[in-house]
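Margin note from the TA: students keep mixing up input and output lines. Inputs are the sequences; the output is the structure of the whole complex. Example:
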Amino acid sequence: DAMVIQNPRYQVTQFGKPVTLSCSQTLNHNVMYWYQQKSSQAPKLLFHYYDKDFNNEADTPDNFQSRRPNTSFCFLDIRSPGLGDAAMYLCATSYRRDTQYFGPGTRLTVL
Amino acid sequence: DQQVKQNSPSLSVQEGRISILNCDYTNSMFDYFLWYKKYPAEGPTFLISISSIKDKNEDGRFTVFLNKSAKHLSLHIVPSQPGDSAVYFCAASTEYSGGGADGLTFGKGTHLIIQP
């Protein structure tokens, strides 16, 4: 089945230790997004790629970076995770305005 | 500044009855509205969307109504089933949100509980 895959599902890292979250898609969608969702809050857009064009939200901390080496893969790098970065990270894809398809998410714990 | 608001954190409905989930927005530039369903430890699942040029969209048991003048939309689920118990997110997009992207602005969600 075509889908959005996120690895790992659960990630534990230490304070300040760089971590990379992975997203892949078999949908061949041209747009990929990363959202952060903290407990009991709304998912918040961090950035997205429209094909190879990177679009950063104005309030996304510099600590968060992203890479999209090809259409299928997109990575979220957190250079120096803090305790406040513990959250669910959701990857999504889209090819049209009226929907986005989400992966299952990666739950990040920072110790 | 919360541009998409879901003012009911939870809603309890009896099985077989109608569930009505509400959403308000403040940004008049939003032109697409989407509803997602989310189970614990899973990503959001797309349910239904509506363009701002329409006032109603229907898909099976799910109907979304949009009142642009009131900046209000609602999701109706008829009849409600036990499997509908989940958190429902309202989301909106504009071509100019997210730095020119189609990124979604989400509400905080409403936890729908279907009682047998």
